[in-house]
Design goal:
Blueprint: E1 3-7, H1 11-23, E2 27-31, H2 34-39, E3 50-53, H3 62-71, E4 78-82, H4 87-96, E5 100-103, H5 108-129, E6 139-142, E7 145-148, E8 153-156, E9 159-162, H6 165-176, E10 182-183, H7 184-192, H8 201-214, E11 224-227, E12 231-234
Parallel strand pairs: 1-2, 1-3, 3-4, 4-5
Antiparallel strand pairs: 6-7, 7-8, 8-9, 10-12, 11-12
Length: 240
Amino acid sequence: MNRILIVEDETHLAEGLRFNLEAEGYGVRVVDNGEEALALLPAGEAPFDLVVLDIMLPGIDGFSVVTELRRREQFVPVLILTARGRPEEVLRGFECGADDYLSKPFELAILLARIRGLLRRREWLARAAAPEPAAPPEVYRFADVIIDFTTLEIRARGEKHQLTLMEANLLRYLVQHEGRAVSRKAMIEDVWGLREDTDTRPIDNFIVRLRRYIEREPSRPRYLRTVRGVGYRFVAQPED
């Protein structure tokens, strides 16, 4: 049975979610604040398979909860469920490390589909990490870097870094367009499905983090290059 933690301070909504998710066969725990959620999700442990998280909480808000989870390397999938659905807030959620974002009001069928999708992703990662023989993972290699899109990991120079789903999706997009200048607008629209007038600055923050994983000298990038006035270009085999 998959275990879901609901972090929601609106009692009627939280109980409605509990009822519907338990009817789908999930085990459900409900808390109404971020502090309790963090206490239930210690680093290195997996007491839940998914977190459904509100943003507007008493005390620590949902953005801070996700940020703290990822800081302590707790990579449980997080679905943000909130009335704050402006594009810049969606991007902030992704930047903090959330895996998906659904605005209130929402259709129950859509929420259940999103939950099933995130749980499938978690099961795939677990299978990829198992010692039993499995199909070859989806791996991309360049220079001294290995990107495993199945386990959402980057290995470079003897270090391993866990990617969030959003980081992995952005990196995959750049790799797919290797050698081509990709605009921030294209990344916003094609990777995250947001409209073209959305603030694109969070893209820059994602690139900074990816450079820390990939580049020997992040301040002088060779692989994730800035294209002034446009966006970025991934170069697997730089000539310089």
